[in-house]
Amino acid sequence: MLRPHISPEILPVTEPMLEPLYRVYIHNDDVTPMDFVVYTLEKIFFISPPEAINIMFAAHYTGLAYVQTLPKPEAQARIGKAHFAAGLEGFPLHFTMELEE
C-alpha cells in the first residue's frame, strides 16, 4: 500500500494585534473638592489611596497630572464614568487622554 507524502504547512508566527495605549490625564479646576477627586481616582481608575492623593496634588499644583496608561476602549470607558459621576455632583472634573508614543 502506498502512502501519500504529506508535508506539514509552515505558517508564519505573527504577533497578536494589541490595542494602542493611551495616557490618561486629570486637569485641575477650582471647584471639584479634593476628596471627590481622590475618591474618583480610587473607585473608577483603581488607584491606591496614597497614589490617588499624590495625583490629586500634582494636578492641583501643576494644572495637569498623569493618571495611568490604558488601552483606548478602557481609557474612554473610565473617563466617561468619571465625567458622569462628576456631572451628577455638579463638578467640572475633567480628564483627557492622548496616544502613547
Describe the secondary structure blueprint for this structure:
Layout (H helix, E strand, L loop, with lengths): L20 E7 L6 H10 L5 H14 L1 E8 H18 L4 E6 L2
Antiparallel strand pairs: 1-2, 1-3
Structure notes:
- The chain has 101 residues and is α+β, with helices and mostly antiparallel strands.
- The protein has one domain: 2-Layer Sandwich (Ribosomal Protein L30, Chain: A), CATH 3.30.1390.
- 42% of the residues lie in helices and 21% in strands.
- The protein contains three helices and three strands.
- It has helices at 34-43, 49-62, 72-89, and strands spanning 21-27, 64-71, 94-99.
- It has a three-stranded antiparallel beta sheet with strand order 2-1-3.
- Helix 1 packs across helix 2.
- It is elongated.
- The model has no long low-confidence stretch (mean pLDDT 92).
